[in-house]
């Protein structure tokens, strides 16, 4: 079996029966989201979105949430990301399956959760890199508030999200509610998640996670 075909023990999200249990499972998933090995480094913790941001930067108002529709692709113009979105389910052990390494250009959407554009926080995950090359969310940590993320849906609409925050959370102090919970009730929100920090060769994981928070500000066709 090749390195890219090898099953990964990361990306686990245990089945939850309550919101609290889901948050705990998401924490377990988040601290070991991607089994990657290139050693790409970034600041271990903190609000990355605050770097270079004007003190009084104004973001657009939130748009009314859309109805339910399945995501098909994600576009992040400033990063040059144009990627298909694949719904991810649970495996036999009750864990969510991330996109395989031979699909490192695909973004995974947690299909049992919120659909992008609908009220709540939709969760999308992508690999930072593989053993041989950068992956779809390699530059995710360079996003800044005010920049745009677009999600094309199967109802023909494009949900346009505005980034409001970029954080790097150390896995030893991971705040699941802050990372995955809705920031404001009633909004349609989006979380983009990948690995960050530095690669720990002893554990085979990165030391942190990059978490981009965005909210719906418009729609297109």
From TrEMBL:
Residues 45-66 are annotated as: Disordered. It comes from the Bacteria. The chain crosses the membrane at residues 12-30. Keywords: Hydrolase, Membrane, Transmembrane, Transmembrane helix. This is Class F sortase. It comes from Streptomyces longisporus.
């Amino acid at each position: 079996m090749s390195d890219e075909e090898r099953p990964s023990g990361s990306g686990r999200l245990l089945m939850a029966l309550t919101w609290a249990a889901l948050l705990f499972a998401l924490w377990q998933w988040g601290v070991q989201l991607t089994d990657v090995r290139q050693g790409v480094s970034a600041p271990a913790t903190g609000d990355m979105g605050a770097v270079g941001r004007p003190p009084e930067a104004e973001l657009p108002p939130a748009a009314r949430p859309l109805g339910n529709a399945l995501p098909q692709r994600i576009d992040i113009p400033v990063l040059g990301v144009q990627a298909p979105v694949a719904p991810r389910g649970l495996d036999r052990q009750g864990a969510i399956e991330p996109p395989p390494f031979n699909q490192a250009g695909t973004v995974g959407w947690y299909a049992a959760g919120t659909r992008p554009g609908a009220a709540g926080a939709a969760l999308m995950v992508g690999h930072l890199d593989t053993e041989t090359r950068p992956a779809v969310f390699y530059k995710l940590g360079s996003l800044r508030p005010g920049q745009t993320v677009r999600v094309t849906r199967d109802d023909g609409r494009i949900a346009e999200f505005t980034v409001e925050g970029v954080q790097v959370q150390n896995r030893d102090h991971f705040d699941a509610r802050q990372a995955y919970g809705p920031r404001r009730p009633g909004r349609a929100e989006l979380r983009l998640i990948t690995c960050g920090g530095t690669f720990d060769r002893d554990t085979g994981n990165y030391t942190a996670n990059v978490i981009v928070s965005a909210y719906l500000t418009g729609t297109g066709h």
